[in-house]
Design brief:
Largest sheet of chain B: 2 strands, antiparallel
Structural class of chain B: mainly alpha
Number of strands of chain B: 2
Oligomer: heterodimer
Radius of gyration of chain A: 16 Å
Radius of gyration of chain B: 19 Å
Order of helices and strands of chain B: HHHHHHEEHHHH
Number of helices of chain B: 10
Largest interface: A-B, 76 and 86 residues
Helix content of chain A: 55-70%
Shape of chain A: globular
Structural class of chain A: mainly alpha
Number of helices of chain A: 5
Order of helices and strands of chain A: HHHHH
Helix content of chain B: 40-55%
Largest sheet of chain A: none
Chain lengths: ~120, ~250
């Protein structure tokens, strides 16, 4: 959801296509495809893939962007484990606001899907 | 993901950046010419120091054993989510400081976080793990995954594990900690659900927040300021990286 909100404030259309993978283009985000390739290489842990995409991102965007993008992805390897390790349900406000695009990014069938029930406790 | 590839990747990253002439100054968690911000470097060094100290529920030695176990889980040949690591020969050390269900939590949360269910959590508690002690394990596992994945991606040596600090866990239970919307007990302190997740162990909530502040966005600004760029990245770039990482981890939240 924050991708959509932050994208509203930039010139050009930001789409959710790149969330589904680097074959989805750059999603209207500067260096978007390279950033997604970096995230995917971190996930795969393939040394050749990592070296290649790090070199490509260094050449295209510089070392600061490489380091900061790796830091953001690493942060979300942490946050996803906090959320899923503790059974964190989606916030009610986010729940309603994200309804329209959850199907688009293919997350509705995830095992980790949890909502706050209307009565309060899950 | 073994140490061999990391070394090879490290050499490549170093050669690429050395040619561009970057240098870090002063004491560092990482020896590198990459332009790692000082506060980020310091936050990682501080995290390792905190892991070595007694926590709320676990001793310094036990907390460092969790760090070691995360590394073992990440570097091992992948196990299926339903495989219990202690059932696989030579995967888990016979001399582990950790109870068997905690080792299982470390492996499952490290390698298959998107597969966890309320029933699985209940089964861990049924084997004698206290709910708030479990929260501290989740926090350390999550932080180590953050710090080590940062190092691995940039071809840096992971920080060395120090000696454990002496002392006993505080055992402090916040008066208002109870099960509300999460599986685990949380405090009634307001904020998005993911911020509340570790609130039953306040020191862990603080530790997690310090890492996020140096690697993403600080506190309330996550939601109140979705416009401002941060570090070298546009906010929209950060959110794309965040969203793709979350999707790969199969995290609905």
């Amino acid at each position: 959801m924050l991708l959509g909100l932050s994208g509203l404030h930039r010139e050009g259309e930001v789409t959710l296509d790149a969330v589904n993978g680097s074959t989805g283009g750059d999603g209207g985000v500067m260096h978007g495809r390279l950033l997604v390739r970096l995230v995917e290489a971190m996930w795969e842990g393939d040394p050749g893939l990592l070296t290649a995409v790090c070199d490509d991102l260094l050449a295209a965007a510089g070392a600061d962007v490489l380091v900061d993008a790796v830091a953001v992805s690493a942060n979300f390897h942490m946050m996803t484990r906090v959320a899923d390790g503790t059974g964190t349900p989606l916030d009610p406000g986010t729940d309603e606001a994200s309804e329209g695009f959850r199907h688009q990014i293919g997350v509705n069938d995830l095992v980790s899907r949890r909502h706050v029930p209307s009565g309060g406790r899950e | 993901m073994g140490s061999g590839w990391r070394f090879a990747h490290s050499e490549s990253a170093h050669s690429a950046t050395a040619a561009l002439g970057w240098k870090n100054q002063g004491m560092s968690a990482y020896a590198t010419e990459l332009p790692i911000r000082k506060e980020l470097d310091a936050a990682h060094a501080a995290a390792m120091a905190e892991w070595s100290a007694p926590g709320t529920w676990w001793t310094g030695a036990q907390r460092l054993a969790i760090v070691d176990e995360v590394r073992r889980a990440r570097d091992a040949e992948p196990l299926a989510p339903w495989q219990v690591p202690s059932s696989v020969e030579r995967v888990v050390s016979d001399e582990s400081e950790l109870p068997s269900p905690v080792v299982e939590v470390v492996w499952r949360l490290t390698n298959h976080p998107g597969t966890l269910t309320a029933d699985w959590y209940a089964s861990i508690l049924a084997r004698g793990v206290d709910a708030l002690a479990y929260v501290e394990v989740v926090s350390i596992v999550a932080q180590v995954n953050c710090v080590d994945r940062f190092a691995d991606a940039l071809g840096l040596e992971r920080m060395a594990v120090p000696e454990a600090q002496d002392g006993e866990p505080s055992g402090e239970v916040p008066a208002d900690a109870e099960v509300r919307l999460h599986w685990v007990p949380t405090r009634d302190i307001g904020g998005p659900n993911v911020w509340l997740a570790l609130s039953g162990v306040p020191d862990e909530l603080a530790a997690r927040s310090r890492l996020s502040a140096t690697q993403y966005v600080d506190g309330a600004a996550v939601f109140t300021d979705v416009v401002s760029d941060r570090f070298s990245l546009q906010r929209v770039q950060m959110e794309l990286v965040a969203a793709r990482t979350s999707k790969l981890n199969e995290c609905f939240y």
